[in-house]
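Handout, section B. The chain below has 318 residues.
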Amino acid sequence: MDTAPEVDAAHVSRLVGERLAAKGIVAAPVSLERHSVGGGVRDSKVVFVSRGAPGLVVVVSPRQFPGVVAEECHKAAEMRSLLGDLGAPILEPMDTGRIDSSTYAVLPYRKPLSRRRILGRLDLLRMQRHVCDWLLRVAQRHGAQTDIARYRSSFSALAPVISPDSPTAGCLRSAESHLRSGRFVARSTPMHGDIWKANVLRGASASVPFTLIDWRGSAKDGFPIYDLMRAAQTFRLSPRALQAQLQFHQAALGCQPQDLSLYLLGALGYYAGRLGEMPPDVFQAMADECVTRLSAALEATTSSGPARLASDAHGRLA
């Protein structure tokens, strides 16, 4: 195990404790335990958690990528500023700086979802509505028309990364004709980019019931429904439940059902050009699952007509 000074718990405890004491945030020494080292992924952050009060989490950039934490803090701050009151689930650092050559941030502790099978499922069910409602409000308030060239660029980036016989490739071929039809209205929305259960924590209060972490891959002018599709994976939404959420987003964005596949592919192409340390086969599997899940949701039957849909969507957004 790496025990270089920048990832040594005693060294980090001493430095962070001195910094927080100077700011008047803590009155006693800080004691940190090394929590994780990212499972061998080269650009994963090193995480320390405090023992006792106050509850603190210290994230430190790996030596190979010393600016990772600073980049993430910058992206999170940009998103908080853009979203206003909707930015409440984004943690604000208590302190930032450098530990030797690596950037770090001190964040307030938020309890993760349970890893036990039954309790974990209950946690997911509790968070499901909160996160889906939040995503819908973000789309409603911040969805905007954008340049269709962004979608052309994303499609071009996606094509060489995916297998030609994959579900994603088949969806891309169908989408390209709609892109050229002149009927597609290109839209953008703020996008977290990696909503899955490890990045969804419990919130600080009933008014802020969940916390979203890891904003490094976020985009202020991202692509609609991608975060919803990733949330559908981690919350295990049924095709019918996902279809209802997609209809709410369709109403909020003022788009047609056939536009939804293009929104998803636009996001996948955006990340295809930014894979970083993500293995291509992992990206392929994630993309195929999103596409397959979207197709199943769009094919699901529903008893809600257009008038009912508009009324329900208005009620959810009010």
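Note. The chain has two domains: 5-108, 117-317. Compare this with the example in section A.
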